[in-house]
Structures are given as C-alpha cells and as structure tokens.
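=== RUN LOG ===
request id: a7f3
mode: sequence -> structure
chains: 1
length: 95
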Amino acid sequence: MAIRVTPQGTAAMVDLLVEALDDQRQDWRLEAEEVQLAYEDWNAASAGDRARAWAAYRAALEREERASLIYGELLASLGVTRRRDARRRADTLCA
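=== RESULT ===
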C-alpha cells in the first residue's frame, strides 16, 4: 500500500518542521545569552571565585555549541546553507 501525501499533509509537515527549527533556534539564542552572562560573571569574579566562574563559563560555551550544532544539523538536513535558502526551501516544500 502506497502512502499518499495530500497538500494539506505536506503543509502540516512543513509547519511542524518550521516550528522545530524555530524552537531550536530559540534554544541556541538562549544558550548564547547564558554564555554572555557567564562571561560577565567570570570577568567580575573575585580572585577566590574565578575558578568556579571560569568553569561555569566553559560549561555555558559547551551548551551553546551543542545547541548551535543541533540547529545547524536541522538546517543542513534540509539542504539549507544560508538564511535565504531556508525561505526558498520552505516555499519549495509547500508548492
């Protein structure tokens, strides 16, 4: 039995994909903001607190990197290499 995809089904799949991409982009941006805050904490830390602040900063960098890689992999899975390609690819999927 063949699976038939209707235009409505395709549009719904695109909507879910766009939502997933947006969610992951937001996750990445939040992690980037956490990096900035952790950097500021490290920069302002007293001598006795610098090691802890540095470790927190490094952990924030790693989380941001992970989030950016996931977002990039989602985009790459669609063949998107530039931001303008994302809109073109979404338009193609909806056509």
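=== NOTES ===
The mean pLDDT is 83.
The CA atoms of residues 54 and 62 lie 12 Å apart.
=== END ===
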